[in-house]
Amino acid sequence: MVAPDFNELNPDASPQAAYGARLRSLREAGGLKRSWPNARTSPRQAAGAVVVTRPPLRHEYRMSNIAREEAMGSSDNTASPTGGTAETSSVRAVNTDAIAIPEADAERLRNALVDQIRADGHARTPDVERALRTVPRHKFVPGASLEDAYANSPVPIKYDSDGTSISCASQPVVVALMLDQLQAQPGERILEIGAGTGYNAALLAHLVGDSGHVTTIDVDDDLVQGARAHLSAAGCTNVEALTRDGALGHAEGAPYDRIIATVGAHGVPRAWLDQLAPGGRLLVPQRLKGSVARSVAYEQRDGRWVSLGSEMNTFMPLRRGIADDGRRVIPLSADGTVRLQAHAGQHIDAGALSGVLGQPRTEEWTGMTVHAMESPEWMELFVSCSVPSGLIRMLFPQSAKGTLLSDDPYPSSAAAVDKGAVAYLARRLSEKKTPEGGRLWEFGVIGHGPGSDELAATVADAIRTWDRDYRGRAATFELQPLDAPAIEQRPGLFALDTPLNRIVVDWQ
Q1: 481 and 356 in one domain?
Q2: E-assigned strands of 113-193?
Q3: CA geometry: angle at 417 spanning 411 and 421, to 5°?
Q4: CA angle, corner 492, sides to 489 and 498, nearest 5?
Q5: Does a cis peptide bond (omega within 30 degrees of 0) precede residue 55?
Q6: What are the pLDDT digits (tens) for 211-238?
Q7: Residue 176 sits in the same domain as residue 77
Q8: Are residues 36 and 112 located together in one domain of the fold?
Q9: Where in the sequence numbering do the catalytic residues fall?
């Protein structure tokens, strides 16, 4: 399973500063615990890390980083270091000579992890819960300690030459979330795009049973070899791991009842749709516009590929194939510590934005507020659809807050750009209160560079429009060919063209 990387998700999923107050309120209400029940204390828990037991987690690292910030007092919104190796590195195979792990300890920690996932509102069916309690995750991350193998965190296994994590064992709560969405059934044939460690394929194999079959593919042969070894060590016999360009799928094994992508995609390759059996389901973490992404479940209804539901979720993109959605980093500060993480298809003048944060600042506050544990995920998507550049991930270290940036920059898909101007989302504690007396945070927009006042006003207006007309409403998604007739023009309806197809986003 090629899972979210720290450069995309540790940064882009960790609300900071004001969210510490959210955790404090949770802790006071009894919603936080310093360790898992009946679980051996991990090194991070021994250091005082907080475990979030509620509300549901919907994004890799989103709440785990909030918890760490509340306990430890810092959370850098930057890429994870790798040790500076110039070559791509990965775990290539299981070390069969590793020190034996007491299975009773592994089972106890595994059950404690699943208890936490269930408390967070995931693993909603008995079948998914049983798979998570049965498949030994530690056998798929043999280089990790037992505590890390059963922590609710990703385990990185491969890095690119620039230090970007390009594969890891995904955070278990996100694995559970996607298995809930996929709804795999006994006897089904499943194609997984992104083999990673093989852990997700093993869970799928457990769900489909001996009468079903799972094919997992990956563009990197070393990952495939490692996944095969892990699957063999875990005793999985109804899974094959193959080296393939994920965007092409695996036609030789088609048709499939379910296809699940555990890599991010912008456009959806036609091969995935063609290789589904009638009535089949596609689940894909899809980058919609800018950096905003959701895990969308599609099925064909009356000849149209329409969504059944979606969850906030971001994975590292497809690489080295026809659907490559690579990224580049664009410095915004003179020292290069604050950067945009833009995708290759986004046409941004990096030179015009160089050092832009050193230019005078403009601020516009919107009056839109959120309470302590309210997710602004649909606001992010609406605003991203509404502005030409979309909202782009902004990476920054803790030290940039209150210096290069505002005191509380929003650490998700946060920045819009226009030529030499940038405008990013920020928050501040509001004077208003909830009816129960709880605290509220107001969203604002901070701009720098020529034309930033107009750009900030555009972003702020989109936030206000969402707050006034669409708050509390979810969107649906439809895949259309690029040559499909133009959609009707009306508020709340957006057509997003990708290199492969059109995504229609509709607030009903």
Answers
A1: no
A2: 155-159, 165-169, 189-193
A3: 110
A4: 75
A5: yes
A6: 999 999 999 899 999 999 999 999 999 9
A7: yes
A8: yes
A9: 167
